[in-house]
Amino acid sequence: MTPSAAATNGTAPNSIPSDGSATSGTATSGLDAGHPLMDGRTADSPLITAYRGGKPSRRPVWFMRQAGRSLPEYLKAREGVAMLDSCLRPELASEITLQPVRRHDVDAAIFFSDIVIPLKLAGVGVDIVPGVGPVLEKPVRTAADVAALPQLTWEALEPIREAVRLTVAELGTTPLIGFAGAPFTLAAYMVEGKPSRDHLGPRTMMHADPDTWTALANWAADASGLFLRAQLEAGASAGQLFDSWAGSLGLADYTRFVAPASARALDHVRHLGAPLIHFGTGTSELLVAMRDVGVDVVGVDYRLPLDEANRRLGGTVPLQGNIDPALLSAPWEILEAHVRDVIAAGASAPGHVLNLGHGVPPETDAAVLTRVVELIHSIAPE
Q1: Does residue 270 carry a catalytic annotation?
Q2: 65 is a catalytic site residue
Q3: Quick one: pLDDT at residue 196?
């Protein structure tokens, strides 16, 4: 694993013990003996084997947003339940997480939640507005706004841990992937107060008020890191940091203003020993910097072929991706040829987990996803 920015500048990363209090130094406790990675359930699974650069028994595949609107069973389960409420009902969140594993035979479940759940659990006013996305009651734009933010506590994350425990108990040898929004994406929503196309607010804050930006990014890093840690300690076998909006940044701004916060988020979970994945959209020019925050796997979106991504990364890490979601609605012969091309391009990397180059579109025919999984599993690993 590449050392984090905190490790390379001589500063010990902060970790948050199970009582929620911050302490200095690198934790070394790792995962409990009964964790799926430790007791033999998932350590040799195709997914974890590929994440660790080994040869899996079959080609692993899962899909971002596989649990969601493309599944009729999801729509039925969510009837009358608001999005954030569905994330915070452990039995419901667990059921939704399990649905695509049952239907598609994918090689991992991805925990059903939302990147703004840490804000909600900390006490920040936020909701998911249908047709809009996350909307905050009050944007965070000044030093005073940042100073007034409540802190996320370990106790507040109990619904998340319970949902993970319920899910892992049903998954058996199939790994669960935990996730969190990367600090920039989280902070971008907080500054804008809602989704944005160009993220001018946070990009301006970085330069016009860098101290406030750093304080906000660190707050977001600690919230995301604790959210991810809760999932991993409760039973998730890997963790993915999603940076949905990092593609709006140039490399210099990403390296200076964002990478340190992403490293800080991951510092909360490095000691656990679970594979860590970093994914962003529109981030072809940022891949090396995203790897260098300290991850085991780099996710690649649909814009860059995997062999070129591997060349840019120097063949140093397994890759995840990158079937174009747009082709899920194309004729089968076109989609099949594309999937085979992605597999061929990924063969140059130290390991490859098939995925989409972004999330499953809501209008996707679920039967097509099942057929893609069957195709991938029919092609023997090399």
Answers
A1: no
A2: yes
A3: 86
Instruction: Give the pLDDT confidence of 254-276 residue by residue, as tens digits.
Output: 999 999 999 999 999 999 999 99
Strand partners, 241: 180, 278
Say if pTM beats, i.e. exceeds, 0.85. Answer: yes
Show Cβ contacts of residue 215 under 8 Å, excluding neighbours closer than 6 positions.
143, 146, 147
Could you say which of 65, 103, 270, 291 is catalytic?
A: 65
In the chain, the amino acid numbered 352 is H
114 is catalytic: yes
- Residue 69 annotated among the catalytic residues of the structure: yes
Beta bridge partners of 177: 110, 238
Cα dihedral 229, 224, 226, 362 sign: negative
Residue of 51, 59, 114, 324 marked active site: 114
311 alpha-carbon distance from chain centroid: 23
CA distance 244 to 247: 7
CA distance 122 to 316: 37
314 CB burial (10 A radius; 0-12, 13-18, 19+): exposed
Name which of 166, 302, 297, 289 is nearest 236 in CA terms. Answer: 166
Give Cβ neighbours of residue 213 (< 8 Å, ≥ 6 apart). Answer: 187, 202, 205, 206, 257
The active-site residue, picked from 69, 161, 312, 371, is 69
Look up 165 and say whether it is catalytic: no
Which of 58, 78, 89, 371 is flagged as catalytic?
Answer: 78
